[in-house]
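Re: beginner question about structure tokens

> Can someone show what the tokenized structure looks like for a real chain? I only ever see the sequence side.

Sure, here's an example I had lying around. Input first:
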Amino acid sequence: MNESDHRARYETRLARVLDHIYDHLDEPLDIGRLAEIACLSPYHWHRIYQAMYGETVATTVRRLRLHRAAGFLANSSMPIAEIAERSGYSSLQSFSRTFRAVFGVPPAQYRRQGAHSRFRPALSGDDQMSMMREVTIRSVEPMEVVSVDHVGPYMQIGKAFDALFGWLGQHNLLAGEMRMIGLFFDDPSVVEEQKLRSKAAVLLPGRVMDEVRTAVAANGGVSLTRIRGGEYAVLRHVGPYSDMRAAYEWLYGTWLVQSGREAADAPAFEEYLNNPKETAPAELVTEICLPLG
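And the corresponding structure tokens:
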């Protein structure tokens, strides 16, 4: 067994840990249980996890819980005390302190004044002209991307990205110039959250695509997906991913209906221009790309 095979074994074991974390965010962190899931020694597995993923398992859990908490604050009326409890904090004060350290503002202020709030005047008609100028029309070349399917809340598509990056690592296909893309097929206002369909995808340099196709053909969990070329309306969003629902509502409900354009029969996609593991939520940059007919 060569070095690549050994790494693949560890990737597979730790992927099971990530799956469990995503599916049990409401539960206390049990290091012993995670070691069992990884089939690794409880004395050593978390060191392996940190070496391979660049953060401790506790940091992963905290990041995912706070990411979900921001979604609750931006997109629901759930009481902040309940959000704190679901995020694993014993007191509202400790939750508020940690949330502020990561997002730059306390939870209540984020709910009122987060990046999502800038779309409210435009949605109500008060500031439509300045917002209309934020959309650019861009010609996009057709793309073939390697992808992993995700079914469930869009806020948990990171689960599919983790699986995709694990697969790319196993096959030595990680590349510095790759582009991260998410494709979204359903409207969360009409489709049940647990049934929402999306894909986590990566656009790789052309020189490695032959290797990618060979590896994909031998693996049922990863696929190749075509993204249509043509004109797209592109809205650049700066801020946490949890704030983007309001951006979508404005892009479809205000910009599109006033632009005189028609949406093409193809899914919208998002391109993530920086890494959420290395970037403060307020500085995340995402381009929302709406295909036009």
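Each token stands for a local structural state, so reading them left to right follows the chain. Residues 239 and 282 are 4 Å apart (CA to CA).
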